[in-house]
């Protein structure tokens, strides 16, 4: 037996023993004594259960299947039921074959799905790069010694536990992510560059009408009117903010234009300029904000009238209501506390491909052993100067495996109760889906490791019932760049749910507008000078909804990486976190204490931005 094989067996034995299965050895002995009078099979049987992670009852089932399939002619039932060393070896060989077949099947299915998608794209994982001299300084990481059977794992909802009291992190983490059935994955991995103008228009119209219905119900409005129609009295209208100039100029109060849906505009679809009254009122905004930021793509309501000058004169702005708070959870009988670390890319500066910030972070990761690790791309950036210049001697997938996957799997072996969540970026070379919204990475990226969860961009998921929303797009920078702030008199302002949510913080108000617009990316169209960061697929923009998985409910934690300074802020009922970028030497931590009667989620959460040493 090779040294690697011995190490592999011992590693698996130690991992399985850490589970501390109640009465494990008693069950093994009871079963084997029952089926064989000879004690010579007990130790080998225990060894098989340890190595392959099966229970004694499962071992019995596999033995029976193996015996009855290979031996058709038995002298007697008693002889067929004998459990011998020879039959035990046959069972072990059969288990090995099943594992190998499971791995091959997973690879074939992945390859078949990529071929059947019919997308005329290039597999960027196989792009040949020119030989370079830069990568010899990177440290090679040994391959983790662990066996995994991806076909036996339900990736939709997985519960992992940590029983070792010396390990930090949770006693138990319940991960609930996007649906992983074939139909759901196929829908997220849609064919892009096939948009039709009619489909784009329909999606844009539908969004206006959904927001119009929301505003109408919230403010008790009897009827919405067409802003382009002449009126003597003030009416209520809802529409999307757009430019009235065909240029790249920033939106201003003078260029403010409103576009309604075809249904709300009597099928005319006409745009109309909006003139804001000097004594403008802002209804339903955050208390203390003193104004509202408006940007192209925002859907808001106005009260005013069209006096016949091809202009809608607005005296009041109706702010869309923010998403509702998540319902309070019942206290868990088990320990539901856990810790989370959040890091966002890029993970190496433009000057080299040594990934030194990532290596520093891995040291902190191994020392802290959080229950969950959330990593947000780009991991292997398509715009990195050295990669663009061909100064690399391996494929992007090989680079990811060496730099990221191997250290992650080593960490997960050290902390068996932990999980990792990967959020892709449209700049990632290891992704074959370069549009937004973006589907999750292929299982080839993580070699189908069930402890590493692949989620789309953007995504919503939950850990122990606490919901997270995350995206790798710098939506805060895009929104801040495009918006125009209009001051006005506050009317029926929303009282903050936390003392620190004063309404005066510009970045917190930008996060609040995401909750009000119910979208991870409400800006439309994408700013021309930032279009290389977001290849927006309008037809599939409904997948950008913040409440896509939980209707009308805001995520408890909103992770929004941005080039702005890092922060952790309370925004309405959510906690917004900007972990910045690992190349700036910072990451975020989230600690969740145990639930208890009368203890709110805000009281359980402790968020922090950590500065790395070095």
UniProtKB/TrEMBL annotation:
DNA polymerase alpha subunit B OB domain location is: 202-318
Q: What is this protein called?
A: DNA polymerase alpha subunit B
Pfam families (alphabetical) = DNA_pol_E_B, OB_DPOA2
UniProt lists the family membership as follows: Belongs to the DNA polymerase alpha subunit B family.
Biological classification of the source: Eukaryota, Fungi, Dikarya, Basidiomycota, Agaricomycotina
Residue span(s) of domain DNA polymerase alpha/delta/epsilon subunit B: 341-569
UniProt entry keywords in alphabetical sequence = DNA replication, Nucleus
Q: Which InterPro entries match?
A: DNA_pol_a/d/e_bsu, DNA_pol_alpha_bsu, OB_DPOA2
The main location is nucleus
Report the subcellular localization: Nucleus
Name a GO CC annotation attached to this entry. Answer: alpha DNA polymerase:primase complex
Biological role:
Accessory subunit of the DNA polymerase alpha complex (also known as the alpha DNA polymerase-primase complex) which plays an essential role in the initiation of DNA synthesis.
* TM region positions: none
């Amino acid at each position: 037996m090779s040294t690697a094989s011995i190490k592999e067996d011992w590693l698996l034995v130690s991992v399985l023993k850490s589970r501390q299965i109640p009465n494990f050895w008693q069950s093994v002995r009871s079963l084997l004594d029952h089926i064989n009078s000879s004690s010579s099979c007990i130790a080998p049987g225990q060894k098989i259960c340890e190595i392959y992670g099966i229970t004694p009852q499962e071992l019995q089932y596999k033995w029976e299947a193996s015996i009855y399939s290979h031996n058709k002619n038995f002298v007697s039932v008693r002889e067929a039921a004998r459990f011998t060393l020879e039959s035990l070896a046959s069972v072990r060989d059969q288990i090995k074959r099943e594992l190998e077949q499971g791995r091959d099947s997973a690879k074939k299915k992945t390859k078949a799905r990529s071929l059947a998608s019919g997308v005329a794209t290039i597999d960027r994982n196989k792009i040949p790069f020119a030989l370079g001299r830069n990568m010899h300084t990177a440290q090679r990481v040994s391959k983790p010694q662990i066996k995994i059977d991806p076909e036996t794992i339900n990736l939709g909802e997985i519960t992992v536990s940590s029983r070792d009291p010396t390990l930090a992190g949770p006693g138990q983490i319940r991960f609930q992510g996007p649906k992983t059935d074939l139909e759901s994955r196929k829908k997220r991995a849609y064919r892009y560059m096939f948009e039709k103008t009619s489909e784009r228009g329909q999606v844009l119209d539908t969004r206006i009408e959904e927001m119009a219905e929301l505003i109408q119900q919230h403010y008790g409005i009897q009827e919405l009117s067409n802003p382009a129609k002449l009126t003597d009295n003030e009416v209520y209208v809802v529409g999307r903010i757009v430019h009235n100039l065909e240029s790249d100029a920033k939106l201003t109060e003078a260029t403010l234009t409103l576009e309604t849906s075809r249904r709300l505009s009597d099928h005319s679809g006409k745009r109309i300029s909006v003139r804001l009254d000097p004594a403008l009122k802002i209804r339903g905004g955050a208390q203390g904000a003193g104004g509202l930021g408006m940007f192209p793509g925002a859907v808001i309501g106005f009260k005013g009238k069209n006096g016949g000058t091809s202009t809608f004169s607005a005296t009041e702005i109706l702010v869309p209501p923010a998403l509702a708070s998540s319902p309070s959870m019942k206290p868990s009988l088990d320990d539901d506390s856990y810790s989370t670390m959040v890091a966002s890319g890029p993970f190496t500066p433009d000057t080299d491909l040594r990934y030194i910030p990532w290596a520093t972070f891995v040291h902190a990761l191994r020392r802290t052993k959080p229950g969950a690790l959330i990593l947000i791309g780009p991991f292997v950036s398509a715009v990195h100067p050295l990669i663009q210049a061909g100064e690399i001697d391996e494929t992007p997938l090989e680079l990811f495996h060496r730099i990221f996957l191997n250290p992650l799997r080593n960490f997960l072996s050290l902390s068996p109760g932990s999980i990792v969540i990967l959020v892709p970026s449209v700049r990632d070379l290891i992704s074959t889906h370069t549009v937004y919204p973006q589907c999750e990475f292929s299982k080839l990226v993580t070699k189908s490791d069930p402890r590493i969860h692949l989620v789309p961009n953007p995504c919503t998921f939950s850990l122990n019932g606490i919901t997270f929303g995350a995206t790798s797009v710098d939506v805060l920078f895009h929104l801040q760049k495009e918006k125009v702030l209009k001051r006005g008199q506050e009317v029926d302002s929303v009282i903050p749910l936390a003392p620190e949510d004063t309404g005066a913080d510009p970045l917190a108000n930008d996060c609040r507008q995401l909750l009000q617009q119910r979208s991870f990316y409400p800006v439309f169209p994408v700013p021309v000078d930032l279009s290389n960061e977001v290849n927006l697929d309008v037809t599939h923009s409904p997948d950008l909804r913040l409440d896509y998985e939980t209707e009308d409910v805001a995520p408890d934690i909103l992770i929004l990486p941005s080039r702005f300074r890092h922060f952790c802020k309370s925004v309405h009922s959510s906690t917004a976190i900007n972990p910045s970028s690992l190349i700036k030497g910072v990451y975020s931590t989230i600690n969740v204490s145990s639930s208890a009667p009368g203890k709110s989620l805000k009281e359980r959460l402790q968020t922090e931005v950590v500065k790395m040493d070095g």
